[in-house]
Amino acid sequence: MSPAFNFITMPFPFQSRPLGARQEEFLIVGKVASCLILALILWRLWRFTVSPFLHPERPKEFPYWVPLLGHGRAFFQDSNGLIAKARDHFRYTQEPIALTAFGVTFYVVTQTKQSAQVYKNKDTLSFENFVQTLMRNNGNEEDVIQLMYSSLPADKFGFPNPYGESLGVLAQKMHAHQLHPGDQLALLQNQVTQRMDYLLRLDTLLGTCSPYATSRSPQHIEFPLYKWCSDYFIRLGQHVYFGETLDQIDPSLPEVFFEFDELIYKMLYQFPSFLSHDMSKPRAQVIASLKKYFQVPQSKRRNNAAWLINAMEDEMRALGVDDDNLAVVIFHLYLAINTNTRKSVFWMLTYLLHNPTLLARYRQETGPAFKDGKLTDALYIQNPATCPEVDRIWHETLRLSGWAASVRLIMEDTMIGKKLLGKGGRVIVPHRLLHLDESIFGAEPHTFRPERWQQKENLARSPSWRPFGGGQTMCSGRFLARFSVTAFVAMLLQRFDVEMVGSAKLPVADEGRPVLGIMSIKEGHDFNVRLSPRRKDS
Ligand code: HEM
Q1: Which of 479, 489, 507, 537 has the smallest number of CB atoms closer than 10 Å to its CB?
Q2: What is the pTM of this model?
Q3: Beta strand 374-375 pairing with 370-371
């Protein structure tokens, strides 16, 4: 007799007992279940009806049935979708609303006046907590984090520190020094155009893209667009900030970073290690390669590195930070440089390829910035007066592909929009929802229509326009990002005819996967393009 047969014919445990005892057991189970259900109903009534009535000063909370878990599952699967549902539930209220996920309360702010209050408040709303949590999870030791966030003397050596701030706070000012318009940014832009010029030639492409090219000859190359944009921009960012050295230390670094970055949600949501080896392994390799970089004698690498990398190294070494911790801190910078531009260039090209008229206009408008295929006046492309179409396409690309949300930890009970947000919770400004607001951005907010930026005056100054976050922590790389992406697309279109291979459908963005700025595509949605040197008549 097979074991399965034995199992099926086995008597049910209750069958061996007398009928009265069985009935009594059922009765007890029934009573316990009824009590639990009643307790749950009472709890829900209290939490979502009575308590809001007694405390009208607190934001209304999106109801749920499972205490502690709350909306945890939906939050992890698609937090924007959950926030949209909650807004719908409260009939698009203007007030902040509350959501609970795994016992943590998130207050969602969608009104621009209130989001401005969030960005202004540095006293009771903290961004540093988010950065410190990232540092901790990525391997920085606790004493190094404390050191990075302890006040430093106002007269210390190195980057000026008139207010006696910590290195963690000073780092934001150092980013701005490198990346806001000025001499340092001009140097970086110059590096970007020179490197782009080299990387965007057919002979270079035939070499660098060979591992994933799907077809190639001396006259053309074909490859998956998302993969290529990612590889190209990680190479570019890495080179501009670190020179040749990183590439020599680990030629596979762009590929490895891409692998990590596509799984970054596991880092952001702190997946347990047994579920996140696929993310933590490439992350460890990037950090290890950065450590090797800092172990190369300074005389062999510093001349080719950006000011910021050298200055951060000096500041941290002056505090006594070792190579391991230095590598982790700089890993966050490597991430900021490389995670978003690769995706924004992909989305911009995708929208242009699906709209040949727009693509032709982009090519024509940026033409005067080039002489014999060489970019001679890069700033021409950045100027909305000379390139208004480029300006509109850039804004529309970010509006549709941006995902980021600004998050702050609430250090003390804080009033926002006449509602009291409780200490210990998080306040979220969900940029994606702001970008899809029909009352601000006009009809068909889900459709790529660059003309909306022309139809409504000063739309780019709207506080609902937040692809780079806001307040003190607003992305300092936004000028370089725009410069690199728009100049790259212009150079590509001057040098090559670009065609989609086959009839590719518009790829779908992976809205459910959290990122730090621009959305990735859904798996399987990449598509091939073919580049061939531009014919004179095209
Ligand atoms: C299209 C490309 C980009 C997008 C959409 C983007 C978006 C963002 C967002 C949403 C934040 C968080 C702001 C907040 O929470 O308030 C941020 C921060 C930051 N980004 Fe970007 N970013 C881009 C490109 C870049 C580039 C190219 C760099 C560097 C070269 C960079 C460097 C930074 C830095 C350093 C921060 C931290 C804030 C600071 O301390 O300045 N970003 N970015």
Answers
A1: 537
A2: 0.89
A3: antiparallel
